[in-house]
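One thing: mind reviewing this one?
=====
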Amino acid sequence: MHKSLWTLARIIIIGAILGFLVSRLFGINTPVLKKNPPAEEQLSARLRLPPGFSISIYAKNLPGARMLRFTEAGDLLVSLPSDDRVVLLERDDNHDGAPDGRRDLLTGLKRPHGLDFYQGRLYVAETDAIGRVRFDARSRATQGEYERIVTDIPGGGNHWSRTVRFGPDGLMYVSVGSSCNACLENTPKRAALLRYDPDGGHETLFATGLRNTVGFDWHPVTHELFGVDNGRDFLSDDFPPCELNRIEQDKFYGWPYANGNKVPDPDFGAGNEERISGSEAPIHEFAAHASPLGITFLRSKNLPSKFKNSALVALHGSWNRTQKIGYKVVSLHFEPNGAIKERDFITGFERQGDVIGRPVDVAEGPDGAIYISDDFTGSIYRIYRHQ
């Protein structure tokens, strides 16, 4: 064998051995970044959806695509934190299955993530601030200057993303993840859900002990607030679970003292039994390390009746697990007796360790379709019912 080829072979073999050892010793098994979205034929061959649904790629070349929000005119906004910008995808008026155009709506931001609209303004959650700007949906243009109305949010850290949503009460809710895997924070604004007036005033520490609640939404009938939370790492393959919490004001949800259903944390549980006892347990547990990110309650009347008032959750997929898990979209069905049933909605992004996509956020379009962002390939998927 040629010397250079032998050297390359040795590097590959050593890399494979090191990767195996790291996976087994530390549970680190993360997919390597791919630049291209899956081909349409690969989607058809790999992905499985409920009967009557199909999936296609709606948009590509959106590096690190994260949170989604539709405008009143039916255009789709996508946050690209890695590029510090927000992109507008024009609605598909010619019905060719793709946006009619695209443009940068906002640039020069600091890791923009969450998006929402309220009273004619677009709100953006940057990693250390909340900003807003007037937005005209018909002209697809911002008006006036972008202003940061909250500037003292702790930024960066292990969990850098921030999500902003307006509740049925007309107030602004902002989630701030923990700075670490498991630790005692030096600011109460970490691992918490904050609440503000629309202008950024009257800050309230709404709920605490939420390690990394990236996605949250309100039930369309009861208006209860539900959020998905990511459990801590480096305990085991199958513990602790990720969580769905019913988030209520002034309640404490356990982190870092407890995991799952009030199970004391091995590092921070001892001596905090009273805090653990008084904490709120999750109302539903996802598989450990599945990493739920976006959650959206379905409101469309065009969906089958079994999906009425159900929620879709994007499971971004594990990295701290010897065998990969997650990498799919599930539906949560709220039963009359209070039980919550989890069912697969889209599977196949991961197969035998091979990953072709990582779902992040879920949005319902005015066309009745469901849109899923994928930060692994920089894509948006469109899920629609057969006619």
